[in-house]
Protein: Neural cell adhesion molecule L1
Amino acid sequence: MDAFYDSIIVTFIFVPNRHDRRRQTSDGHRSSSLKSPLHFPTDSFPPFFLSASQSRGALCHISLLHELSLLHYAVSISSHLNPFSPPALPLFLFSSAYISSLSLGMKRPPVITTQPESVTVFSIEDLVMSCEASGNPPPKFRWTKDGEEFDPGSDPEMKVTKDSGSFAFYTLSNTMDTLKQYQGKYVCYASNELGTAMSNEAVLITDGTTAQKEKKVTEKAEEGNSIVLKCNPPQSSMEPIIHWMDWKLLHIQLSERVVVGKDGSLYFAHLTTEDSRDDYTCNVQYLATRTILAKEPITLTVNPSNSVPRNRRPHMMRPTGAHSTYHTLRGQTLELECIVQGLPTPKLLWVRKDGELSESRTTKEMFDRRLRFTNISETDGGEYQCIAENSQGRAVHTYTVTVEAAPYWTKEPVSQLYAPGETVRLDCQADGIPTPTISWTINGIPLSDKDPRRRLTASGSLILEDVNFGDTAIYQCQASNKHGAILTNTNVYVIELSPQILTEDSNTYTFTEGQKALLECETFGSPKPKWQLNWWIHQPVMNQLTNGGLEISNVTRNDEGTYVCSVLNTTLSITAFLEVFNRTVILSPPQAQKVQPGNTAIFTCQALSDPRLGVPLIQWRKNDQKLFESHSDEKYTFEGEDLMVANVGLDDEGVYTCQVITKMDMAEASATLTLCDRPDPPSLLQISNPKHLSITLSWTPGDDHNSPVQAFVVEFEDQDSKEKGWEELTKVRGDVERATLPLWAYMSYRFRVIAINEEGKSDPSKPSQIHITPAQAPDSNPEDVRSESEDPGTLLITWQKMEQRQFGGPDFKYRVLWRRVVGSGPNWHMNYTTEPPFIVGDVGNFSAFDIKVQAVNEKGVGPEPDPVIGYSAEDVPLESPMDVGIVLIDSTTIKVTWAAINKETVRGHLLGYKIYLTRLGSRSHHRHRRSLESGSTTVVETGPNEERKVISELRPYSSYKLAVAVYNTKGEGPKSEPLPFDTNEGVPGRPMSLILDSPSETEITLHWTPPDEPNGILVGYLLQYQQSDEDSPMQVETIDDPKVTQLTLRNLDRHSHYRFYLRGRTDTGDGEPITMRGATTLDGAPPVNISVSVGENSANVTWIAKKRHRSVDFQIQYFRKKEGSKGKKTEKVNSSQSSHQLQGLTPGTHYWLHFIYNNNTFYEVEIDTNGTGKVTEVQPSFATQGWFIGVVSAIVLLLLILLILCFIKRSKGGKYSVKDKEDGPMDSEARPMKDETFGEYSDLEEKRTASQPSLCEESKLCSQDNLDFNGSSAVTTELNMDESLASQISRPSEGPEAYHGLQDSSLLNPTNVPSATNGMPNSVTILD
Structure:
């Protein structure tokens, strides 16, 4: 015995079942770090070694040098399992998967691994029946045929092959006739000492398909009739594939008119002469036997019809009658068929009467003549209709589909280990139509009723009470109905073992939100532990399963945590960890696309996933097939969340699915891509129901290309006026296929129809036949009859010319009638013409007439027209208005009155009055200048019934004259006598400019120019000012002298800003103010923010001058550090410069820089110039060579001579008018400024001055009087609230106080240069 144990070596390799998962996830993963050999103690057994290796997909091998039975081995070690680690060892030995996990050396019940398959025998090679099973000891096989024992080994016609675990037999016969005796139902049995397993039932049938000799068939029919060419394939259990071909083996062209039926025949809905041929051949193909049977060719002769074939309403060719019934089985394929005849070819529509057609399980084939169900289910049972329709009518056939089902499992019994004395319940439930019957066998033998411990429930379950070791067997449950039977084997093993927890400890389970989480705690023991498992968790117990697991439905993030499973009354327990991730969701799914051929379709799929799962994979599928990015044709392009399908064609139609895949879950959404296009043109236009002036036009719609037709447009063409082309006559809805058309008389029509959908218009249909309407008298008269007389003494009658289609008949013309409204009596004057206008002469000016125009043709006259009033031609008015008067309302408004004009003198339609208003000039004391002013005349028009008019917006204190005239459509009459008047004095406009100057830190001087529009006699000015603080009081200065143009304000606060308002004054009141904001200028101060940039021979010094401070002079001293103060050099600069360059420095030298103001150093800095300080020899340049200088001198001399010659030629060639240039307007912005006045100007101003050097020669703008202003004063302007300071400065001034420049530190002029006087100009900061 010692030698026996010494030789035992057991090696376990994990089998990939639900017990070998260490890190369980929603897709079947869990994690663990267990991978270690297992050792048994040697106190009771000699040592032997177990090694566990976790390897997914590996087989489990147990090698025992001496065979042990499973039971003996389990009993021997059961008392030694508890102390060992890990406790999952019984998992390898006794789990529910042990039957498939343990191999050699262990007794195992038989399991059918390869089921015998049903077979149809077409040849002797096809008769093979095999069965394979596993088990230990190896199982023995036996067969039954039709329920009777069948031993193929005893049959001389059979050959048997046996192997370990397999059994097969096949025939030795050479003819098919001898095989018919073997048709039947076969069952395979595999047995060993642990039980007997049964296979499913396999059916064997024989089928021999042979071609029979046929006669050649000839068919004759007339054009337009229908016909069926029969195929008659041989009878067989196989479904044949039918090919109709010609003698060249080319397929006969199929269409809606020509289709192949399920019976193999070729059906023609109606015949055409092109259908005539002598080689219609039906080829029958059997895939299973790989044979094709060619039938005899059929000759079809179509005789042409002597007349146009008559249209026929649809009629069913297959099936016949109005109703059919089909029975089918669940999961099978069913085809419903409707083949119809008719002319034109009928359209076919499939509908479900009691619901909607299943889009996923139904397809339409053979040009919609077949409705195919794939994987049909019970819900597809019901009534279906095929509706055939053409322009002549419709035909309907109804199918009743009944779906039944062969048995299928809804619950199968589970193989288990049981302890003696337990009650075993084997649940076996199946469904089907009709409901299947459940029966049980034990080891293939029907269940006996003699054993009281065994009983069957009404639901089909088998209950075994108080089982013992003798109940170990294989139990078969069979479900059967009239459509078949199914069988399942269940192993019951009765054994005794102590309890163990088989699930690995410390498993981590990961799920996404919304999933069903299952935490495993599988136990093993015989008897099996019952209700002894408790989950202790961080929240109340959820749904505990009978197998010990914990189920959490719709798991959330709140369910995360640690869970503990323990077996009561033992020390066994395991811990599990639950981790929950956010569910992946698609935020923006792809949308259905309808795309025209050749365009690009774009699907977008935006998703959100848990960031802990990393970046998700976006996988696109088309009809469940993966899509890959195209590189050659660029058909599919992936750009982030987008899929682009380029150059869309018919093959691109389908369902596109976006799958967002993470390590834990997947979300998907689908959208369809439909190829749509403009509809095909309608066809078969027919005219019916012709009446006097109407017809009914019908048509057959074309293919809508997946975009429903929205409307049909009916157009017509007048055959007598083809130059007008096709015109729209009417439009009808897209579901209408006929229209009643109103027509005009005496016209020749052709019609066509255009279909319209969302993609556009179809091509026009072929035109209909010509339809001619009869002539009749006109049914309307011309419209818009009126007079448009222009020449005096004439009456011009005109109207809107009628279209030719309104003539109604031949010899069309217009009858023109007229008479005076007053004094002419009832008599009408009449004349005829073929087109407008018609002129009547010698009728006087502006006389009223009744006029009318009537349409006339050969068949009669149009309806009686209503007369309208017309007038002969107008002339200009004869007289002017009388009693013209003026009333002054205020300084800018007057009221004009006049007497109504005599209407007879107007000689036309009175349109109104015109008031001519001319301004003569101002009423000021410069009256002698009025004659020099050009009067501006304004014309004001009134209505014909007005006798007064208020005119406003006149200029105050001005002289005007006024006249009134009458006008009509011909012109205006004479003006009334001019009436002069003067407007009253008003308030003045605002002063033209306002400039601030600051002589000291507490004083501001205001300079202004008088208003350009005084609107009266100026009597003085009103100045108001206050500190910028809104709460400060307003101070007032009154100036009574209108000649004063400046004022100095003293004792101002140097720290405050002020706002100034200056107004002109007349006796009428104060005018509009000019506004300015500013502050005084502070005393000068040295600059700040000094910086130095260094070169080899120079240093650039920059600084920032203080705002509101006057510019100051300061000094820059610099010397070499090694020379000390001996080498000092001093340069004077002004703070307004902003920068200064020190030149002549030595490269590579250290310098001190001191900045001095008022003999005090306010800043100092040390610098080092760039370079090495070494003197380099200057190489002579070619520019210093004598030859180069000579060449340049010669060129310059030649250019000078050339310029002199050009100047002489120009002087002799013509004259140049200098006066025209000088008399032209001068740019106000181009005023020169004296250097000694301002000391600087901007670059822009300098360019303007330089470009106009002649402005100062004759202009007074540059005179000393005009620029004689204190050079120490200037202005710093920030903002003018009422008008820009720049525009004020650019205006011409009339006094010596006018300013023409800006202060150096102005924001408008940032460049600062020291003043030409004392370098400290007075200035004021203007803020507004």
User: Anything to note?
Assistant: The longest strand covers residues 393-411. The CA atoms of residues 1232 and 1246 lie 8 Å apart.
